[in-house]
Amino acid sequence: MRLVWLLLAVVTQACVAPLSSLTRVTPLATTTARFELKTEPLALEDEARVREAIVRAVPKLARWGELPSPVTVRVAPTHAELERAVNRSGYDWLRAWAQFDDLIVQSPGSWAGTDRDVDELILHELTHCLLFQSSGTATNWANKAIPLWFREGMATVTAEQGLRFPSLEDLSDWLKRNPDLDVFTDAERLSKEAYGQIYGVSYHAMRFLLRRLGDKAVIETMLHMKSGETFDQAFTKAAGTEPKRFEADFLNYLRFRAFRGFGLKAKPRLQPGAPDSRPK
Q1: pLDDT (tens digit, 9 = 90+) per residue, 39-97?
Q2: Quick one: 126 and 163 in the same domain?
Q3: Where does residue 145 fall: left (phi above 0), alpha (psi -120 to 50 degrees), or beta otherwise?
């Protein structure tokens, strides 16, 4: 498994500092979304890579809807400047930070990201922007209390990042070794040191939801929040169960390894005229 240290991002409402060196401003419009790229004047290669990743990401976002508000995408020259801008320290794996209509991305050239890495990062982060815009307004989106598992699960599933996270078997073993951890309630705190496992839980929890209820459950949750409800209220209506109940069901699915199935095998079928040698 390739650990996803280079792609994860914390997403929350915070005081985001300006990056004064980003004086080059480039507008970008697609058929369904609008963006404004801000980079350093000579960062032409990074600007091009981010721009191309955005263009490739927009059609995949259509699974959930459109980005109704323009998004400003700022390319921070270094990791240190990214951390300063988002007021976080010690998150070595952090490569981007998304909010309602603002996205800060660490310069791909500063972390040697491949084109695939950059594509996944941009699609992941723009999924956050779409979630926030589809669930609230610029002034109330952070009040919806959308849990980390839903935010990151939606983003990692959209960006198809499953191979970058622990498997269901690995997560089941990890939970067995750490029975006192509350991977949902304490997800924000745990993500700093156990980000691979926490984001893995998020990814697999979202897949657990989608296999049972389909994309409609996510879309309707966003629509209910947009109409004024909190996440808990919206999810309960859309999924037909309270978030805490869903989380408990998923943890049981992991702990009891229900993802393996029940091990039942069909009885062999006899060919016509063949002797029955099965035990009586």
Answers
A1: 999 999 999 999 999 999 999 999 999 999 999 999 999 999 999 999 988 888 899 99
A2: no
A3: left
